[in-house]
Amino acid sequence: MREITFTLARPTPVLNVLMRQNRWDRAKNKRALGREIAAALGGRLPSEPIEWARVTVTRFSVGMPDQDGAAGGIKDLLDVLTTPWITPKGQRRNKFGLGLIRDDDADRCLQVVLCVKCRAAEQRTEVVIEEVGGCVSGKISGPGIFLDRSLELLPRPSGHDEMQKGGQ
Known about the structure:
This protein is an alpha+beta fold and 168 residues long. The protein has helices at residues 15-19, 23-40, 67-72, 75-81, 160-166; strands at residues 3-8, 53-61, 85-86, 92-93, 109-117, 124-131, 146-147, 153-154.
């Protein structure tokens, strides 16, 4: 299984900061974030994106944001990690994407956000992208992949297919 790890020089913004940015500043920040991630990876981007991923973002900052603010604040980061694509009408979607993961929807990407209090000089964001073997949301289970609350990969329980068919 593949794993991609990198560190950003500053903590991700919280949701309140993102919501108050105008779209031009936000686009400029996404471009800068994409350049920072590419530089952190040494310019070595994978040839194929990770299809099913667990993205763990550890935000080191002076203050401790609330969980929904920290989780919402990684939206731009996830947009930059995903793969750009063209709509049937020829419009480009997710133009800032680097193609590290296929998509950030719940079926393909499990998002884990951790917050750690630190000194001002130690502020940063650590990102770990791990490939998992199938769908991560639980709506559709890949072969042998289930996730429990501790986010550990577990073997498929015996009798699971019979329970699904029986409607229990």
